[in-house]
Amino acid sequence: MLSDKVDHYNEHKTELKNTPAHYKKEFDWLKEVDSLALANVQQNLRAAYNKFFKQGAGFPKFKKKGHRDSYTTNNQKGTVAITDSTVKLPKIGHIKAKFPAMINGLIKSSTVSKEPTGKYFVSLLVETIATTLPKTHSNIGIDLGLTDFIVLSDGTRVANPKFLSKLQSKLAREQKILTKRRAVAKANQRKLSDSRNYQKQKLKVAKVYERITNCRKDFLHKLSFTLIKNHDVIAIEDLNVKGMVKNKKLAKAISDSSWSTFTTMLNYKAEWYGKTLIKVDRWYPSSKTCSNCNHLLTKAELPLSVRIWNCPSCQQKHDRDINASINILNEGLRLATLKTVGTTGLA
Ligand SMILES: [Zn+2]
Fold this sequence. Notes:
By secondary structure, this protein is of the alpha+beta class. It folds into three domains: 62 residues, no CATH class; 66 residues, no CATH class; 208 residues, no CATH class. Helices cover 43% and strands 17% of the residues. The chain has a five-stranded mixed beta sheet. A hairpin with a 5-residue loop joins β5 and β6. The longest helix has 35 residues.
């Protein structure tokens, strides 16, 4: 479909409105798949095309088979359903499945994906009613720690889980071996797809990577839920994660992307459970301000290496990260009040 769209555009400079139905005669195997799965691909392609023309995104790319394979289909009156031990999919029927939790609500769609480890996952989009959590009359500021994962304004430090750093070193080791195997295959002028040692190692790397991803997600889900449950207003720094993720160091890159996932989780969980998440501008000098008297230090006065400092103005002793998180909380509460006043003012 993409190829025909491209040809048509080159010739007529307009968009070809083709549908999967046009291809069923030529490609018999399209009849094996359920029609909604095809319709979703068509929709994705149109969305990518519109993004290219209207929002200046990159030109839609061809999907490579075997790389992040997945498909999405919609539930039509029970065509997608679950039992205790199976999931039912159109044209496939019931397949054995394990669910981590009860699924309550109306299933809207399902996406089946194949992971690099060879495992299959089904993800279900469910419409449900979110029940808000009770108010706690407690607010919290969160600072992204340098050595810890996060530091809270109440003085709590949440460390990066130990197993994560162990798995990270394991990943680095296995990746080194993979690089060697690639070099060996190249030296022997063998295709990577034919090199069994390389393929075996590639699967090993994928498995470690999958474990890291799952452990990390589990840690972030539990942590974000605890924070949302225990506090009403949660203030965080709005970091420029795009710039951060470019960092080449593995451990750093993982912690940066953790932060981005973490703020996303806080964001939607706050919305689900009726709490408030406030993002504080990343230029706000949370580290360099004294949370006691508001005295502002210069960059030279507080280099990154200084973890504990005394305020030259009020003499208060500060832990760098805790002081920053207190400032983030105060600034967050100030912004939250502005917001509330603004809304009532309008009403
Ligand atoms: Zn001070």
